[in-house]
Amino acid sequence: MKYAIIDGIKAEATKGKSGKCPSCGAELTPKCGEFKINHWAHKGKRTCDPWWENETDWHRSWKGNFPCEWQEIVHFDKDGEKHIADVKTSSGWVLEFQHSYLEHAERKARNNFYGKIVWVIDGTRRKTDKQQFMEWISHGTRVSPQLPIFRAAFPNKCRLLSEWQDDRTIIFFDFNELVADGDAILWLVFPKLADEVAYVAWFQKRSLVELHNNGQFDDFFDNKFAEIVKIIRDKESRPTNVNNQPRFMTAAERRPRVRPRGRL
Q: What is the number of alpha carbons within 13 Å of residue 91 lying toward its C-beta?
């Protein structure tokens, strides 16, 4: 946990200090060593939130893109159940940064609990996931010359996709990819719209952060994202022309080497 409450104020872990858990109010102990990032921990093995996972540098880096007051927010539902969201924006969107494996049942429970949720998945946890994803997308096609959206069949052949492709939530894979000018690129996974196919798109990390920090993600979700989903759904509803088979993409087509053209 990055923050504890000290004298009513959120504070990061510091040697010699003590604080209270923002969720359960129990005393937290600062853990400040040479090999792990500074953090707060409940005494013993006690934890007040079964959904909480140990924080990595990757988690901490992502959280740092957002205001302190949005980080580690206790979220309540109408029945009084509570959990600590990694980030909860002023617009009510919850961003969950997931490094470890997550059972489908728990993911579904979190989706239902938070409602307005965006997942960012650490695609570097397993060494083969990025290679497997790129191999899968290499057999796909680009949906539009103007937009960096790709369609490929048999997503179950990609382990990360088979674990995370969802029917309604927004998911981003973070493979720690940088293009030539240093811009970080994520892969947006569109909600499941048809069996045996999946749609993904390049998305700038900077754009995702700015949309939330500027309070514009609702507009993006309700308009541009919804419009693209409609286009994809319409495309899937059309009969396939077997005499017009799409060609496979080249590496240059599926991965941006410079700042991407046709951004979402």
A: 17
- What does the mean pLDDT of the chain come to? 83
Strands (E), 24-169: 27-31, 39-42, 71-76, 82-88, 94-98, 117-122, 141-142, 149-153
Q: Convert the pLDDT of each residue in 124-152 to its tens digit.
A: 999 999 999 999 999 999 887 777 899 99
Q: Give the single-character DSSP code of 220.
A: I
Contacts of 222 (CB under 8 A, 6+ apart): none
CA-closest candidate to residue 197, choices 234, 165, 224? 165
Identify any residues that bridge with 200 across adjacent strands, giving them in sequence order.
150, 189
Say if residue 249's pLDDT is above 70: no
Helix (H, G, I), strand (E, B) or coil at 188: strand
